[in-house]
Amino acid sequence: MTSTPDSDARAVVTEFLHRLAQADPNRIAELFAENVDWQLDWPDAGHPAVPWIRQRSTRADVADHFRALHDFHVPGQGGGTITKILVDGPDAVVLGEINQTVRATGKKYTARCALHFTVESGVITRYHVYEDSLTVAQAFAETSQRATPSDNAANAFGAPGR
User: pLDDT 10s per residue in the chain (162 long)?
Assistant: First the structure.
């Protein structure tokens, strides 16, 4: 039986999720091509409050990313829920939620996310993450004050919040 792009993508993404649950950055990185189209739903320069957010492009960068995710969260106090995996040829999208506790602040967060993968020749060549970045950034903030929609709108235009 020969494999199809759909079955290859589903198998690789399923293995990625399995390795992600095991929190082994080097084994996760083995599933990626040497050069990766990497994108997180954040500013290109990264995010100062969230340490692992920066541009990545290589398999070694992938391992570093997942190592940082592990290092900045409390072990055993995180996880995720997958609600759907959609596959179309070499592309796959995983929809779900991430649950974590930030080591530095002790704050827990739940963030909805979508992961877009492209699998070619049995490895991940594209990894784009879309997540509730405001919730993640707030969990890393030292204060527990949560932004309101009016704060966000005011700040988007450079104006002070309430």
Answer: 456 667 899 999 999 999 999 989 999 999 999 999 998 866 656 566 676 777 789 999 999 989 988 888 898 888 899 999 999 999 999 999 999 999 889 999 999 999 999 999 999 999 999 988 888 888 888 644 444 444 443 333 343 333
Give the DSSP H/E element, type plus range, for residue 21: helix 5-22
Task: Give the strand order in the sheet containing 79-88.
Answer: 32-40, 123-131, 108-120, 91-101, 79-88
* Global pTM value: 0.79
**Could you give the residue ranges of the DSSP H alpha helices within 23-141?**
25-29, 59-71, 133-140
